[in-house]
Specification:
Layout: H1 3-17, E1 26-32, E2 37-43, E3 46-49, H2 52-57, H3 61-69
Antiparallel strand pairs: 1-2, 2-3
Length: 82
Amino acid sequence: MDYGMISKIEKAKRYAEQRDRIHFTSFQVTLEGENNPHTVTYQDGKWDCDCSFFKSRGVCSHTMALERVLADMIPSSVTAES
């Protein structure tokens, strides 16, 4: 039995449960929208999406969906709760 690996797996489980340990600085994802896939990026606390709604409003369903997925792990750009 690999006790070193068992120890690392247990540590990983603890880290995963302590979401406040994780701080995103940047990432890029593709979100499959209803009509087209959209590229969403997060860089230094700012969202960007290639959809036209984001370009005109600075927020969109794609960025809001990712904020929900990453709840409490990144600051929210929308103040209204839904």
